[in-house]
Each structure stands twice: as C-alpha cells, then as structure tokens.
C-alpha cells in the first residue's frame, strides 16, 4: 500500500515515453524537496520486449547507481514504502505516452457544436479521430455500423443535447454504436464515453452499459454557450489508462505502484501548467509546450482554467509525417538557415518514421529537425488558441496572448546544442508577445510535478523554485505595426548598484542584452510608435524587475506573426543573422 | 545500452505468428506444410450489414411487427427467405434481399450480416505449422535466410529471385525490366522513377526488393498488386554489403516476400525469407541485445546512413557530436577501414 503523498518524503516518478523511459527521484534534503537524479532507458513497450518493465528496470538500475540508494529489493520488486535503512521510496507517481494514439469515433448532433466540443475533448490526450457521426451524416445506420467495425476504434465519444434538450436524436445516433459493440466479441469491444444530455444517463447506461465498457461524464455542453470539459477529461484519462493497461504488458504493475493513479503524460503536463497559473500573476496566463516523440502538447492556463491540445500527428517520432497533413513541406523549409533540397527534407521525414529514436548527426539534419519543431509549435498554437479566453486575445487569433512564464520541454529543446538555439526555436515556434520568461525543463520533470502537484503542492513549488529548471531569459516582444527600421521600444536596464544600459530597438531586429544568470535588474520600457509590450495598452510602458537567464534579456522586434522573406537566399541570410545574434 | 536488432542471416530458424485481428477460423492443421501465399485463417473483419424496417414493411407498429418475425438471431437465411409475415389479407411478407446471418431481430427491425468474402490471412512464409491458436491463427516455422526490410507495401507472394542489381548502389530503370522477368521476384537497387513500378506492374512481377526508394513513389507503390520491400530507407541509399551479398548469392532460389508494414508494437516488419535446408536446427535469431564492442552494426542516419561496420569502442557518458548534440556514442570502423563517431541511438546491431 502506498503512503499518501501528503505524509511522504520521497517520491519516485516514472515516465514511460514512446522513445525513452525515465525514473526521477525526489526527496527532502535540508528541509526542502529536491530533485535528486534521474535514470533513463529506451522504452521497451514494443517488440521484441512487449513489456515496459525491462526499460523501467534499466532506468531504476541507473538511478540506483547514480544515487547509491537501493530502490529495488533482492526479490526484484520496488521497495514501497521506504525502510528505516533508507532503501525504497515512500510513494510512486507514473505517467505514460508510449503506445499508438487511441482511435476515436466522435458522435454528436451538430458539426459546429457538439462534434466540435467532442473534438476538443479528444484533443486533450493522445487520440486520433478516425470517423464522426452526426445528424448531417447521410449514411444509413447499417453503413455506420460497418464503418465503426471496419475502423475498430478504441473509444466512441458521444456528446450532444443540452441537459433537458434533444434526446431522441442522440439515442438514434447511438444506435449504430450499440449495434457495432453488440456484434463484436466481448474482448474486442470498444469503450464508450457518454458526455451528453444528462437526462439520458439512466437510459444509455441501461442500454449500452451491458454492451461493453461504458463511462459517463457530465455534459460537455450542459447549456448553449457553456463548455465544461474538466470532468470528461478525467474520464478520458481513465480510459487511456485502461487501454494502456490492456495493450502493453507491465503497465498495470506500474499503475499499481502508483496506486491506480497512472496518468497520460500530457494530462500531467497540463496539470503542472494549471498549477503554475494559480501561483503566478493572474492577469496573464501560463503557457507550456512539450515537443515529444509521441506528440506535441500545448497547455495554456488562465487562473486555474486549462486549455490544452495534444497532437500526436505533430510528434517528432514515428508520427512525424503527420506534420505534412497540416501544412506543406515549404512551410517547414522556410525555417531552414541552410540550403537543403526539398527531396532531402522529404526523405528525412520518412526515414525518421523508421527510426523515431534517432538523433540528427549532421548540420542539415539538425536544421531540419528544428524546422519541424517550429512548424509543430506553429500548428499547435493555431489549433489550440481558439480555446483561449476571448478577453486575452487582444491582437486577434494569430497572435499569442501575454503569457508569463512559458515552460518548454522536449528533447529537441533540451538537447539543442546551446541555449541560443533553444530560445530561437521557442521564439519562432510560439512567437510570444509582451514580456515572458522562458523556462526550459531540462530534466523533463514537468509531467512528474503535474501528477504530484495536486496532493503535494509544496513539493511542486519547491522544485520549481530550485535550479532544476533553466531560466533561458526574459523575452520582450513588442506588438505593433511599423515598417522595418522604425524605432519601436526604448529600454533602460539598471542592474542593482551599477550603471544603466540603454538601447533603442527597431522593428525587425532581435537584440540581446547581457544580464548574468540570476542577476536581478530593473527594466524601464518605453514603447514607441504605439507599440504594446503588455503594460496596459499601446504606447504604455513602465518598470519591471527581472532576473537574468542563460541569454539575459532578449528583445524580439520581428513583429507578430513573423514575416519571412519569400526570397530563399534573403530568408536564409536573415535567419542566420538571428542565429548569430542569439549565439547559435 | 539496449539496442535495436535487425537480421541479415544466411541460415536461421524462423518462427512467425500469424494472427487474425478478430476471432475466426483456422484453416490449417498442426504439422501442415504451407507456402507463403497459402491462406492459414479467415475471419469476418469488415462485415456488411443490412437493417430492415420490418414494421414499415408490414405496415404495423413495432410491437405488432415483432410478433410476426419468423427468424431469430444467429439464423442463416438465403436470398428470398421470408423474415416476417404473412400479415393481412394480402399476406404481406418481408423477404431477405440477400443471403446472410441474422444478427438481431426485434423492435420492428432485423439486422442481417450479409454473406461477404472473409478476410484471408496468408501464411507470409513457407514452412510448417507448429502451433495453433484457437480461432485466431497459427505459428509457422521454417529454416533459411532472413533479410529484414524497413518498409513494405503490404503484399505477400513468393517466386524465383531474379538479381538485376549489379552492385549495391545500382539504379533500377524501366528499360531494364523485360518479359523474361515476368512472374519473378526482382532484386533491384534504388528506385526513383515511377515508371519502374508501372513497368513492373504491367509485366507483371511477383515482387520487388529494393535497396531504397524515392518517397514520392509511395502512393504508387501502395497501389501495386505485387509486394515491394525496401531494405535501407528513403532517398538514394545503396544496399548494405551484408544484405546485398546474402540476396545475390541466392539468385534463382525460391524466395518469399512478406511486405507488411513495420509495426513496432506488434513486432512485425517486412521480410525476405529464403527457405533453405539445414542439417540440424539452426538457432533462433537473437531479438534483444545490448551494444558491445566487436558487434556488427548498421548506421541509420546521415552522414553514413546504410553503412555497416564494427563497433570498436563505446565511450562512457555523453559526448558532444559535430552538431553539438550530446549523446552516448560509439566508434564504428566501416568496411573500408574508416573510423567514425556515431550516436549509439543511430546504430542497430546486425545479427
């Protein structure tokens, strides 16, 4: 039996990624929670192992070697809780993103209302929508049944009808779902999640509950214009966990270690971001981005309200080809600072699907990998931002609202050759606005903190305040509309007890002001030509205290959205110049 | 460090599970010899249904219509069979429009699963059935050479191997295919011309083994009626010397191609199997291994993609590569003697 996180001291967090399995150890040192070490190993969910246990065992071996702490007993079992001699851990938290995305069929009344709501819910974890059924669907019932059987989904997500609203239409649409599950053998039946008109709960439970695994969640749209996804997201996370327990050997044991609390990695990442939004300045949101092998996840939280998108087709591993379904090769290639033929880029994509865990080992391959990461972030922002509160979208849907801080995770960032490349990736991919601190999760801790933050917020805060996250720097991105070369911002920096530095920034320029890591300074910002830096409106400036990051203070005067020259030579020159400015 | 393993083996015991996605019927028996294209199991995995509105057909309410239904779930019906009725002075009936099996009957409706061709699971390799999985599939075993690929278009077939590639970096062009190759499995090199595939299809060939292929040919390759396997990857990559030698020395032998796509979760990948007699029982291939010195490895990414060499050293800790990325690295001595530093995640063991 695991100890409650509230009472526990030591925590072992395990993340089973699609490429890498990580084990993290946290413990109390000198009265504060600290991240002690991590052990990694290739994920062994797939052939020939078909058992995540092997990868976890290797990761734990590494952790034991690094820390000198015994975590696994002579019986090869994890020691829970810790023993008086210091062996073992008090509690375990676990997250997973390994495995193919869940295949989902959406069922709703109207395309733009209930189906759209269902789509947004499905996008909060690792799913792939393979079909949808609505009132507009002209297929006969039997054709829908056959389509569902052909696709063999993992989950059918049903929504529609406000509470007390449409009911017969919803039941009619569900007819094909029930018939399909009836036809399937017991062990092959898909899960059904009903998150529609709650007045139908008893009836659908009686009818569909006996046909296969069945779940109920509160209506996604209880009234017109009201969206509530949080409870349904919890159900969806449960369904994802059930699927992984069934599909991959060894996952159930990890889930048992975690007291049944195994979460999708993206869900846990979102929780970490939501937690931060309650800790930081409530006038801005907190943004998190995780560019992983299995998916790119974008999580934005506004005073505890989370908006999240999980995009398996934008992961940089096996599903990398998915990027081409949402944009052209040209959109990827526009970010290259090297002259690389389109054919080479195309072949890079397809070869990466064959070897998702491989690394770029030439300048060209690294440039392509980073260009793909930029494009993945651009598409993720585009697809997620329509869920952001309208009041935050001051400059339209194509411009990110103010966020502070921005937390970034993912090997393409943490393994970037230098911090300058990581910063430029984020500036190009996310295109932040106003004043933001860029924080790099260099130890891949965010998911672990997310799963523990709910019950041990003290640990999460203390870890975040420690040096385990890398401050990359404060970014100032003025918003406005002026011709290149026009002065847009005057900035004065006063480092405590020393001279003042002043600089005028022109439209189109990226500029770096040196401020040593951890060094405090006061910035006085004076926007020019009605530019907005998020201090109360266009033209409004003020003072702000900042701490130096790896790159100090970065002023991104390129405008939003960034306009790249059409001419490829000019474009590559410009990108090379930005790279040089940031020390890439 | 755990390694990915790929097989280019001159003689080994090969065992493969062939399993249906849904329960069905196993059509072979234990001990039976099968060829690569023999059907070993079948199941209805993509059924076709018909929903008949009996109430409407009989002109009755749902409740009343149910009393006149003449069939029940599980019953096999032929085209024209009466499913409900007769009703009324005109003796109205509802007949089955096609043959099938009743799935559900009630609430004024009858759902029929129509008789359609089942999904047929091919053996994928010539060999002997050594185990049966009830209603699901079989395990087949053979001995011979095994060459694993990285991409396949999903087809399965077998035939005589015709070696067209003169050297590992040969380029296959349409003019090199002629009627003498009709019905053969052709070993080409790099294919970058869609006309090659069209020419192969018009002959037709029974299969195509390529070193590499231009990715732009993928849509056409999926449309081909014969199996296509790619051994190295996409872009112009020559055959690795081990695979090339293994394939060319088996010219004119009967070869099986299973060009199913690489599925990491299930452990299936495209393969060339060349059945060969063996005096004893060769060992099964090693499927899992850790990187170690003196192993033969293949490099998976540029700048040495496709090259084979020996891992002579594994550096401790992380090393910064030329690009600045840090990784566990090893030194690989290539066939020509050159030594190169390669991230271990960019290597696979050849066994």
Descriptors:
heterodimer; A: 584 residues; Nucleotidyltransferase, domain 5; Rossmann fold; 8-stranded mixed sheet; 24% strand; B: mainly beta; Glucose Oxidase, domain 1; OB fold (Dihydrolipoamide Acetyltransferase, E2P); SH3 type barrels; 3 domains; 12-stranded mixed sheet; 7-stranded mixed sheet; 5 helices; 9% helix; 43% strand
What does this structure look like?
- The complex is a heterodimer of chains A (584) and B (351).
- By secondary structure, chain A is an alpha/beta fold.
- Chain A is 33% helix and 24% strand.
- Chain A has three domains: 11-98 and 249-261, Nucleotidyltransferase, domain 5; 102-247, Cobalamin-binding domain (Rossmann fold, 3-Layer(aba) Sandwich), CATH 3.40.50.280; 266-581, no CATH class.
- In chain A, the strands form four sheets. Chain A has an eight-stranded mixed β-sheet with strand order 13-12-11-14-15-16-22-19, with helices on both faces. A five-stranded mixed β-sheet of chain A has the order 3-2-1-4-10, with helices on both faces. In chain A, strands 6-5-7-8-9 form a five-stranded parallel β-sheet, sandwiched between helices.
- In chain A, helix 5 links the parallel strand 8 and strand 9 (214-216).
- The longest helix of chain A is centred in the middle third of the chain and has 22 residues, at 363-384.
- The radius of gyration of chain A is 25 Å and the shape is globular.
- Chain A starts with 10 loop residues before the first strand and ends with a helix.
- Mean pLDDT of chain A is 92; it is low at 1-6.
- With 351 residues, chain B is mainly β.
- Chain B has three domains: 7-43 and 124-275, Glucose Oxidase, domain 1; 49-114, Beta Barrel (OB fold (Dihydrolipoamide Acetyltransferase, E2P)); 291-350, Roll (SH3 type barrels).
- In chain B, 9% of the residues lie in helices and 43% in strands.
- In chain B, the strands form six sheets. In chain B, strands 2, 4, 13, 14, 15, 16, 17, 18, 19, 20, 21 and 22 form a twelve-stranded mixed β-sheet that branches. Chain B has a seven-stranded mixed β-sheet with strand order 23-1-30-24-25-28-29, with no helix packed on it.
- In chain B, a hairpin with an 8-residue loop joins strand 24 (295-299) and strand 25.
- The longest helix of chain B has 9 residues, at 194-202.
- The mean pLDDT of chain B is 94.
